[in-house]
Amino acid sequence: MRLLQLGLGAVIALSFFVPISHAQGPAKIEPGFDYRVLPVAQPLDTKGKVEVIEFFWYGCPHCFDFDPEIMAWEKRQAKDVVFRQVPIAFREELMPHSQLFYALEALGKSNLNSKVMFAMHRENKRLLNENDIADWVASQGVDRNAFLAAYRSFAVVSKARAARQLGDAYRIDGVPTVAIQGKYITSPSIAGTRAKAIAVMDHLVDKVRKENYK
Known about the structure:
There is one protein chain. The protein is an alpha+beta fold. The chain has a single domain, classed as Glutaredoxin (3-Layer(aba) Sandwich). Helices cover 53% and strands 11% of the residues. It is built from nine helices and five strands. Strands 1-5-4-2-3 form a five-stranded mixed sheet, with helices on both faces. A hairpin with a 3-residue loop joins strand 4 and strand 5.
């Protein structure tokens, strides 16, 4: 009888012990596993702020999946966080997508970016030549001639090429990838999941604040 009581006591003790051992809070975020530190920090456009860049490509299915989450993340950031997107063309034939991004930006139509991705990934539109791109943009209520003027402009073409060079400077070899303060890199593939990547971004933003935005 005493052995049974001891056994029952052990079971009861174990039943209390197991939940406690798992109640450790959020998973630890570690450099080298959840994010990487660039060997050479890149210059910042804004001082005294947290600079966050999402490198992406319209045609990337992972970018399409991540887009709603990172847009929601941006909306809840404090005023000291400066967020921007940079389109990456890993091959020359994909440069029209980068020009599309900057032409929409020049026209104040960046709100169409998510629709561009939806058209590519849900409506099977490639949008890789000028006429197809202009036709699609016009279907969204944008003046076709005004768009083409922006799309062909020296400023837009220069920005598209500069974006590619920036990706090289940050050693971007896949998208989506998020750079924070010119020196930290994370992504859903690095962190393991989209949710973990968002958690890592929050962690890094707080880290930069503690480092006095350096």
